[in-house]
């Protein structure tokens, strides 16, 4: 009876275990059903961010399931019992998979339609049809509710329609799609600013900087815009209070503007009224009242004033009117950024400013320059000029004032100097440089004796600064006439010794140094002439001119072996040694570079250096410099000269081995320092083996061995 009972017991336990396993499988299935229900709910969510996240999770699950199926298909499993619950589960999952695939397919189609609608909206936006643009973006969002670009584009259109709350709403939706969307924060900041929500606007722009620290320039511009807008609003509120309180000064500005608004009066009537209005501009409140009472409409609405100001050939009355307007605008715009912006965006002012500068009427030119100076003296003003004026001809126009003998020349050069701080101005200067600017500039250089020399020196310096732009530098460096004019100015310095002319000479040497950064065949052509002029300037009494002449030599000599040969014949090595003994760091930098160029391939220069620098005292001193460029060139010169018989022997009782060893094994940022020092050390020991004893004492044989690779690579 025992075995049957044991058998029945075992069978009962097996059935119980099978039921427990089946129950566990069922519970796992129910949990998956809950997960799937959650996914379905997510797919139907109105929140684009939730929906996007759910789609990604669904696709991941499907991918995992497909991978699992592929693995299972490799193993054949014979089942004798079909689990009905597993069948239901698999059927449900198959339905979900089918639904997800259909959704993915529909999404792909909808994305294509949404992109097409976005492009149609963009096209309408570019044409200024903002209503149609909004409609197309909205239709696109009906196809694809989580497309960030549609929200930000529609927000931009809403901004154009002054529907700021709607723009903010769209930006918020865009940020749900992409929490780091810079465009959304930028447009939201604009909308909040328009609604005078200054704090919220600042927060939006601060977010941009947090997301991308590289947007610092954009951040500064945006914050500046908020500050100016706040300032404008406060000024207008203050001005309104003064009008309401009946202050005489405030009322007089309003009355004067009303009188100027009278049509068909004599031109002298308007000129007198404008002068009275100018006198009434005592403070920021007056400037604000001028703006809020449509003061800038004088030019637009009054045909007599407009005609007189815009006349090509002005009579005396029209000149007085124009000068009066320029006085008024200076009074209205001084220290007032909003007024500056409004004036510069006025179509007639925008068109007339370059014409007034070129008018040839001294008083008009003087006051136009004074007005433009208000803008050029500060960063915001310069940006207004660059943003609202076509400055392609301004370099040429302002440069003509070098011919002026009065203060206009200085004013014009100061404006130019300020404008060169703006990269956009440099870019615009490229347009007319070859055709207009360079012919005028070369003529001014040729006529240096006859023009305003202080202004010319300033002008040459400005052109030198513009050479920081590679395109401008290349155009100037390739201008043969420009080089000829520079040489002529240098030649005439020996006939004209006035301080102002010496300033021109100093400036033109600086210009040539900048142009020599752009090697070309023209420079090679003029190399002998340029180096010859610089050699003649080495005896000049002005130390600054001598230093720049050496600087030009250091950059022109590499362009021509013939120029090197002529310079060496002219005693350049001996002269450089002289300057290196007493010169400052800048002179030493240029001087040792000149020597390194000469000694590189010219045997006479090598021999001259050995003769001029007894026991290499000057070079050894330079090797102790903290300037790595000087050290590198000094080591190079020393290495080149050690081939001269007796040169290495003359250094036997010096500390040259220790110095070169220090640099060869040092950690200078310029690798040429180590290389040149190692090569010099190797050449020293080859030319005079007795230096090896000192090297052994200093445990420097390993560095000497490492120097051999440099020597073999030469």
Mean pLDDT: 86
Class computed from helices, strands and strand pairing: mainly alpha
Number of helices: 38
Q: In CATH, what is the homologous superfamily of the domain at 540-713?
A: Leucine-rich Repeat Variant
Portion in helices: over 70%
Oligomer: single chain
Distance between the termini: 105 Å
Q: What is the CATH third-level topology name of the domain at 540-713?
A: Leucine-rich Repeat Variant
Shape label: flat
Number of strands: 0
CATH class of the domain at 540-713, named: Mainly Alpha
Tell me what the CATH architecture of the domain at 540-713 is.
Alpha Horseshoe
The largest sheet, given as strand count, sense and whether it forms a barrel, is:
none
Beta-strand fraction estimate: under 5%
Low-confidence sequence ranges? 6-10, 75-82
From the alpha carbons, calculate the radius of gyration and give it in angstroms: 40 Å
Pfam families: TPR_2 (PF07719)
Organism: Corythaeola cristata
Protein name: TTC12 protein
Keywords: Repeat, TPR repeat
Topology:
Layout: H1 2-43, H2 48-73, H3 84-126, H4 130-143, H5 148-160, H6 164-177, H7 182-194, H8 198-211, H9 216-244, H10 248-260, H11 267-280, H12 284-292, H13 297-301, H14 303-310, H15 316-333, H16 337-344, H17 347-357, H18 362-376, H19 379-388, H20 394-399, H21 407-419, H22 423-446, H23 453-466, H24 470-477, H25 480-492, H26 499-515, H27 521-537, H28 543-556, H29 561-569, H30 572-582, H31 585-601, H32 603-612, H33 617-622, H34 628-641, H35 656-664, H36 671-687, H37 691-697, H38 701-713
Helix pairs in contact: 1-2, 1-3, 3-4, 3-5, 4-5, 5-6, 5-7, 6-7, 7-8, 8-9, 9-12, 10-11, 10-12, 11-15, 15-18, 16-19, 18-21, 21-23, 22-24, 22-25, 23-26, 25-26, 25-27, 26-28, 27-28, 27-29, 28-31, 30-31, 30-32, 31-32, 31-34, 34-36, 35-36, 36-38
């Amino acid at each position: 009876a025992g075995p049957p009972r044991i058998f029945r017991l075992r069978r009962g336990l097996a059935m119980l275990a099978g039921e427990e396993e089946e129950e566990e499988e069922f519970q796992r299935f129910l949990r998956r059903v809950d997960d799937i229900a959650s996914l379905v709910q997510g797919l139907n969510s109105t929140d684009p961010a939730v929906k996007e996240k759910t789609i990604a999770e669904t696709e991941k699950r499907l991918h995992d399931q497909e991978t699992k199926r592929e693995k299972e298909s490799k193993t054949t499993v014979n089942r004798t019992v079909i689990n009905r619950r597993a069948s239901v589960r698999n059927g449900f999952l198959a339905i979900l998979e089918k639904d997800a695939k259909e959704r993915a397919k529909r999404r792909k189609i909808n994305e294509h339609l949404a992109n097409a609608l976005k492009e149609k909206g963009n096209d309408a936006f570019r044409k200024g049809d903002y209503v149609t643009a909004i409609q197309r973006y909205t239709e696109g969002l009906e196809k694809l509710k989580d497309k960030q670009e549609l929200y930000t584009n529609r927000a931009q259109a809403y901004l154009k329609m002054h529907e700021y709350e709607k723009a903010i709403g769209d930006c918020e939706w865009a940020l749900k799609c992409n929490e780091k969307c810079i465009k959304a924060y930028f447009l939201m900041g604009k909308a909040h600013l328009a609604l005078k929500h200054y704090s919220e606007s600042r927060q939006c722009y601060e977010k941009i900087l947090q997301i991308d620290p590289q947007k610092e320039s954009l951040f500064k511009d945006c914050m500046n815009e908020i500050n100016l807008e706040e300032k404008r609003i406060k000024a207008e509120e203050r001005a309104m209070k003064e009008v309401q309180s009946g202050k005489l000064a405030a009322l007089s500005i309003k009355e004067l503007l009303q009188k100027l608004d009278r049509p068909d009066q004599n031109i002298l009537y308007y000129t007198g009224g404008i002068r009275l209005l100018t006198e009434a501009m005592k403070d920021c409140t007056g400037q604000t009242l001028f703006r809020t009472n449509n003061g800038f409409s004088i030019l637009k609405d009054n045909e007599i004033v407009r005609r007189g100001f815009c006349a090509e050939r002005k009579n005396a009355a029209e000149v007085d009117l124009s000068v009066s307007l320029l006085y008024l605008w200076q009074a209205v715009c001084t220290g007032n950024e909003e007024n500056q912006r409004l004036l510069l965006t006025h179509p007639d002012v925008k068109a007339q400013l370059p014409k007034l500068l070129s008018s040839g009427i001294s008083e008009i030119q003087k006051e136009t320059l004074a007005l433009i100076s208000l803008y050029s003296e500060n960063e915001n003003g310069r940006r207004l000029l660059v943003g609202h004026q076509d400055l392609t001809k301004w370099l040429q126009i302002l440069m003509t004032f070098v011919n002026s003998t009065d203060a206009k020349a200085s004013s014009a050069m100061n404006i130019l100097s300020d404008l060169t701080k703006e990269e956009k101005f440099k870019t615009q200067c490229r347009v007319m440089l070859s055709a207009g600017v360079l012919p005028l500039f070369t003529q001014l250089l040729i006529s240096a004796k006859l023009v305003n020399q202080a202004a010319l020196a300033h002008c040459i310096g400005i052109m030198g600064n513009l050479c920081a732009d590679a395109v401008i530098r290349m155009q100037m460096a390739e201008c043969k006439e420009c080089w000829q004019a520079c040489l002529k100015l240098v030649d005439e310095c020996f006939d004209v010794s006035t301080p102002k002319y010496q300033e021109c000479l100093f400036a033109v040497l600086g210009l040539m140094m900048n142009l020599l950064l752009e090697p070309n065949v023209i420079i090679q052509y003029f190399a002998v002439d340029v180096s010859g002029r610089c050699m003649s300037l080495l005896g000049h009494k002005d130390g600054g001119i001598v230093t720049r002449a050496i600087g030009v030599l250091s950059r022109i000599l590499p362009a021509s072996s013939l120029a090197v040969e002529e310079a060496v014949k002219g005693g350049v090595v001996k002269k450089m040694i002289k300057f290196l003994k007493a010169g400052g760091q800048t002179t030493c930098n240029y001087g040792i570079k000149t020597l390194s160029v000469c000694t590189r391939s010219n045997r006479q220069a090598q021999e001259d250096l050995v003769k001029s620098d007894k026991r290499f005292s000057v070079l050894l001193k330079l090797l102790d410099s903290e300037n790595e460029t000087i050290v590198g060139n000094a080591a190079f010169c020393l290495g080149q000269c050690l081939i001269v018989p007796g040169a290495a022997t003359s250094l036997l009782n010096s500390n040259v081995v220790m110095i070169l060893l220090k640099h060869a094994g040092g950690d200078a940022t310029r690798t040429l320092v180590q290389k040149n020092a190692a090569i010099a050390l190797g050449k020293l020991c080859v030319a005079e083996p007795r230096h090896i004893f000192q090297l052994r004492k200093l445990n420097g044989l390993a560095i000497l061995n490492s120097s051999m690779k440099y020597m073999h690579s030469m």
